[in-house]
Design brief:
It is a single chain. With about 425 residues, this protein is α+β, with helices and mostly antiparallel strands. It folds into three domains: about 230 residues, BirA Bifunctional Protein, domain 2; about 55 residues, no CATH class; about 90 residues, Anticodon-binding domain (Rossmann fold). The protein is built from 15 helices and 16 strands. Strand 9 and strand 10 form a beta hairpin. Helix 1 runs antiparallel to helix 5. The longest helix is centred in the N-terminal third of the chain and has 20 residues. The chain is elongated, with a radius of gyration of 29 Å. The chain starts with 12 loop residues before the first helix and ends in a 9-residue tail after the last helix. The protein binds one RNA strand of 77 nucleotides through helix 3, strand 6, strand 10, strand 11 and helix 11.
RNA sequence: GUGAGCGUAGCUCAGUAGGUUAGAGCACAAGGUUGUGGCCCUUGGGGUCGUGGGUUCGAGUCCCAUCGCUCACCCCA
């Protein structure tokens, strides 16, 4: 027996229904904020992610599904959505007609990681990207719609962490301060951090090892190093969040794992998620578009993990959907009429099921009950002779005799539910 | 990539210090009503005990290997 690839799951049953409902809710809400959907390819040139996400990040270094196609070109199954959206935007030169653009996407992403709770190799993300707005109003747009989505789904018990990473002007000063702070503490650092210190000193800040935690208490904070513009931006954002009554917690340890962020970064965590507690994360990435060879466009965006979101939905309701009619067919001579009735009803807009094995009346009715049919039509040889069928209400248990002719007249109104 | 725990029926699990034909509940099917569901009763189908090797008179049970799943580290949505 061939089974699915590790970390690649089949989504079916209740989960599939919740998935659909969640998607339509997202589309409905994002429309209120005037976000437009983009459906982008799953496969992109590897270079897009190397340059976009950053060569030194874990995602690019060891988590991408990368392979050569038949022409020898290196392709990668997208590990995230932002780089693709930026590529799309520049490729179609959409900023030419409108300098303020808002997009969203929903779809599968791929990362080669060891699966665990809340972590799959193929997982789904919904994300938004806002282009062209340097002002923190971009953050407010993105964050307010996110908060509304979470509240509509009914997810509480989340913490919203926010931080600023500064810009090209102020971050070098901070990196230097960090570097010299850790310089004489080499022996106190965990193995990972020794490596980080050279490659990406910012990441020292969010190390989780207890060994490093002590250092971090005394480590310099990025927010103390922000230049005036960055500080004003951050302050103004906080004021806007107050205006919208969005509660947040400043957390200088939020630095994010992708290279493209500047200024605002944020994460939404939930304690109920397990070790992979991030439900949603994002930030501002003003340089990415230009870095990818495109137009110089400020941008802000976030992405949320759909599976993680679903695992938080504590909805115990029954997701097996009821059907309108079950048609019980008794005897060989009733089959022809029965199958015609079924076809008629379906094309009149009713959901209909029947027993293709034509079991006993008892087993057909059992099946009608199990499938949650609202009404059952019973059609046997006797009924055919009389030109009628029995219409049975499955909740009341009452039966009535109806002339088959009424179906052909399209007179379904009396059974509307 | 590292570590820990777990693999017995479609599902959730029992299975006693190794000992006859491996069990239960749920689910499924048939019947109890010569054409009527839910509740109840009866009966039935379904398992190479993850796989391979070893120890033993005898292995679901002990040992080794392997595969898979889960959780955690790491990382991230």
């Amino acid at each position: 027996m061939i089974h699915s690839i590790r970390g690649f799951n089949d989504i079916y049953g209740k989960e599939s229904v919740i998935f659909q409902k969640l998607e339509s809710l997202l589309r409905e809400i994002l429309k209120l904020w005037n976000f437009k959907e983009v459906r982008l390819p799953i496969l992109e040139k590897t270079e897009l992610f190397q340059r976009g996400i950053g060569d030194d990040t874990d995602i690019v270094e060891k988590e991408m599904y990368t392979f050569y196609d038949r022409n020898g070109e290196s392709l990668t199954m997208r590990p995230e959505g932002t780089a693709s959206v930026v590529r799309f935007l520049n490729e179609h030169k959409l900023y030419g007609s409108d300098r303020y653009l808002k997009f969203f996407y929903i779809g599968p992403m791929f990362r080669y990681e060891r699966p665990q709770k809340g972590r799959l190799r193929q997982f789904h993300q919904a994300g938004i990207e806002i282009f062209g707005l340097p002002h923190p109003l971009a953050e407010l747009e993105g964050i307010s719609v996110l908060q509304y989505i979470l509240s509509r789904i009914g997810i509480t018990d989340t913490t919203f962490y926010i931080n600023s990473l500064g810009c090209d002007l102020c971050r070098p000063g901070y990196k230097e301060a960090l570097f010299s702070f850790f310089d004489n503490k080499e022996e106190h650092l965990c193995e990972d951090c020794k490596r980080r210190k050279i490659k990406n000193p910012l990441r020292l800040i969010d190390c989780k090892s207890t060994k490093c935690q002590e250092n971090l208490e005394k480590a310099p904070k990025i927010t103390d190093f922000l230049c005036n513009n960055c500080k004003n931006h951050f302050d103004e954002l906080k004021n806007l969040l107050f205006l919208y009554n969005i509660s947040f917690e400043e957390n200088p340890k939020i630095v994010r794992g992708l290279d493209y962020y500047n200024r605002t970064v944020f994460e939404v965590h939930s304690k109920s998620l397990g070790a992979q507690s991030a439900l949603c994360a994002g930030g501002r990435y003003d340089r990415l578009s230009k870095d990818l060879g495109g137009f110089d466009l400020p941008a802000f965006g976030w992405a949320m993990g759909i599976e993680r979101l679903i695992s938080l939905i504590t909805d115990s309701s029954d997701y097996s959907e009821e059907i309108d009619f079950f048609v019980v067919i008794i005897g060989e001579s009733a089959k022809k009429e029965g199958l015609t009735v079924i076809d008629r009803l379906r094309k009149a807009g009713y959901s209909v099921e029947y027993d293709t094995f034509f079991g006993s009346v008892k087993s057909q009715l059992r099946r009608a009950d199990k499938l949650k049919a609202k009404k059952t039509i019973i059609l046997g040889e006797d009924e055919i002779k009389r030109g009628v069928f029995i219409l049975k209400d499955m909740k009341e248990g009452k039966e009535e005799v109806v002339e088959i002719n009424k179906l052909w007249k399209g007179d379904f109104v009396k059974w509307s539910f």
